[in-house]
Every structure is written in C-alpha cells, then in structure tokens.
Predict the 3D structure of the following.
Amino acid sequence: MPRAFAAITFTDSVKAAQSRYHSRESNQGFELAEDSRSEITPREAEFIAARDSFYMATVNENGWPYVQHRGGPAGFLKVLDEHTLGFADFRGNVQYLSVGNLNANDKISIILMDYPNRRRLKLWGRVRIVHEIDDPALIAALESPAYRARIDRAMVITVEAWDWNCPQHITPRYSDADIEQLMAPLQAELADLRARSAAPAAMSATPDALGEGELALVISGVRQLTPRVRAIELRHPDGLDLPAVSAGAHLKVPVRLADGQPALRHYSIASNPARRDIYEIAVLRHDDGEGGSRFVHEHYRLGMILNCALPQNDFALADREAGSEADRGAGRAPVLLIAGGIGITPLKAMAQTLKARGQNFELHYAARNRREMAYGDRLRRELGEQLHCYFSEEGQRLDLAELLAARQDTPGVYVCGPDGLIDAVRDTADHIGIEAGRIHSERFAAPAGGENTAFEVVLRRSQRIIPVAADQSVLAAVQAAGVDTLSDCGVGNCGTCAVKVLAGEVEHRDNALNRNERERAGLMCICVSRARSPRLELDL
C-alpha cells in the first residue's frame, strides 16, 4: 500500500522528473510503505491544535492555482475525527477566490507551519462548504467565542493524505509568545541567581517549578509502589481535563541530573487512558545512572509544577486490535501483553483499554518477587484470570516458546521490559513463524547490540565526513558537528531520526522501521543503529 500522498502526487510527469534528476529510487520508498498516512493520528491532531494559521491552495477553472493564508486563534482548525478537519471561515477581503475555486473544484492542499521548531505538515483533501442556515450546530462547534471575527461559513475537509516535510530551508521565526516562552527560563534563572545571592542557604533547594514544556502539570500524589518504584500522579493546575492519550503513550518530564544539568526523561503513562483528570507515571530508581530517576525519587514533591512536553505515543495498540464487536469476543485469539519489571507501565494501560473494549487478551508479567511487582494488587483485582505472574525468586519462569507456540494466531504481541526479554520474544516469534509485523515492543534505553566500533559517516548533501566514536551514536556525532536533523525518543522507538542510507552496511537496532523501510527505502534510525562497514554514506 503506497503512502496516500504519493498515490495523489506521483503522477507520470512527476515520476519522469524524479527519474531525470536521479531521485526516483529514493522516492519509491513512499510507494512501498505499509502506513498509508491517510488517517489523522494523535500526533498530527496535537500539531494541528497548536497552529494559529495555515496556507491553503485551490485551483480555478483555468488551471491557475491560488494560495491563501488562513488565520485565527490557536486550534481554530479542528480535528473532527480521524478523517475530517473543519474550520470557521472568517470574513476577509470578500474577493471569494478560494470559495469560488472550491465551488468548481473541491480539491485542496494545506501546509501548516511550526517555524520555531522547523516542522511542516502537508495535507490533501476535499472540501465541503457549509453555511449556518444549513448546519448551525456545526458553525457553533467551530467558532471560538473569545475571537472577535465574523464567520461567513464553515469549511469541512475530508482528508485523503498527509505527510511531514523535512526541516530543510525552514528559517526559524518566533512570535512574541514564542520569545516570551524562550526568555522564561533565562528570566527564571536570573531570578534564581538573585535569590541565591541573597540567601546562600537556598542554593540546595529544589525549585517549585521545573521544565520548559507547554503542558503544566502539578504533582497531586506520590505513592511508593515497591521498594524501588514510586508512582507520581499529575493533574492540571486548574483542575481541567488533560489532553487525551491512548494506551502506550509516554510523557517527557523535566529532571536535573547528578551534575546539576537540566534534562528530560521519558516515562510511560500508566494510568487508565479513559481518565482525563490525571496522568500517572511509575519511576524505577537507578542509583548507578545519570541521576534522572534518583532526582524524581528525592525531589518530586506534592504541589511542584512540572512543565512537560505534550504526551506522544510510539507504542500504540495497532488499529487491528480494535476490531469489530464480533472480532473482540472470547472466541478470538487473545492479544498477548508481556511485561518485565517496570515494563508493566504501558502494558497496564493497554490491559485496561482492551478490557474496556471487550477484547480477548492475556497479560504475562515477570518480576523478581511479589514485593517488586508494581501495580500487582490492582492488576489482580481488575484482570483476574487474564493476569499471569512469574516470580524468578520463586523458581517461576515465563516459557516464551510454550506461550507463543500456543498463541500463534494472536493478532498482536506487545512486550516491554529489559532488552533481553524483548530480544527473546522477537527471536522466539521468528523461530515459531509469527511474522515480525505482529510483534510490538518498547525499550527504555537504546539496545546494547554487539561490540561497538568506530566508523565514519559521509553526509552527501552537506559534503562532510564525520567520525563516529565507538561510544557515540550517529545522531550525537552529526549534531555535535552542527548538522541539524530531526530526533525525538533517542532509543529507536519513534523513527523520527530515520534517514536514507546511500552506501554502506547498517546494523539496525531500532524498533520503529519495518522491513520495507529498511531494505527497500534504505532507511536507518541514526539514534541507535550503527555501521557494519567502515563507512556509511547518508542523505544529509
């Protein structure tokens, strides 16, 4: 199944141009992709909701294109469902060029820009123009009461395709609000320095607010789940609903490392996704790490404000797991959830989601002992016979070969925990004959892989050769050399950092790319994957 935008835009003349200018081979990956990118996912919905303007292109009867800017309050372009967008069309200069074009040709193309972060989202769709006399409820749903502008009509867009653009040639631009947000940490630091100089004893104190993210959360509860795992409950400071999340989502929370440097740490949202009043994360303390988890245990306290990034999900339940009511019953093979230790956090939320759907599933939870089984009592109470526990100190062992052999027809296996568990599940499934597409995993750290060696990367577009040390990722080496490239999770879960490999042999260590993306499109995740050859040539 090709990417939907490629099916729309890769006409014969476009393909001919790609061939002439030697990009046809690299663009064929879009035609071999497994994800059509025709449905709006939570990631796109969050991006759209944050935008206060966009550019839209229409075409008139003479074949001439017309690009118009549409603006309003942030979020005025609304996601109505996974296939539909809508916005209130405010009164402008009354030339009605776009409206007239759409009356003759309902096709539209939209570009939404995030200039500070150099991100760009493209959408293609068809437009239906709706007037208030025809659907007053829709107009009311799309209006923004605090925004003083006259609404002439509504435009409802059926989305047929979307795609993210690379950040090339996007010059960062900042609004007054952006600058104020960027200056806030400096202002806070200045205030902190003044306070420290006035009261030296305050130097060791933990601040009442941390982080620079757009989502402010207050710590409303702290519970000790096990001797080493602490649950942190987070709410909106004003008691409002939090952004909706799906099972498997994670939250980036601010911490300070042992050297005093600020940092972000990813923790799965373990609370039931059906709840909108709280997020709960569970943090395993590592005393031999960089200090992030230790900071959470020692300094997170009731009432502290955490300014976090919006939640993201790189480990979501596949669409097929939703199924129809007929498919979700007890007669269907169960979805398998396999957790090791603190890996229970995203799988707890998945179990609660699947149970609410009436989906057949089993949760297999391996821990060292009963005292270190986070959420044990709650899971036993809520899941009953759907929960299977294994405690190594009691001589109990999760037999993956037996489990997967008995569940070969499972629609999906979701595993989270230590690297050894994830690798064992994948290897066992491959041996039994369960296709890789049904195995989903999430790691908390980059996989160790084999023994790392140094190599070089050649950046074709930048015309640079950059050495990559044995203890360094390609992403870190490239960014240290001043080359800007996209990245997010840093552990091979999301695929944001994927780039095309033009020459060389890759050792893939990510969980994000499928076989087509690796072998046919030639992509690699530079945050974790490395070179098997002395040199890699990348399309950067």
Notes: The first helix runs from residue 4 to 9. The radius of gyration is 25 Å. The first strand starts at residue 53 and ends at 59. Residues 199-204 have pLDDT under 50 and may be disordered.
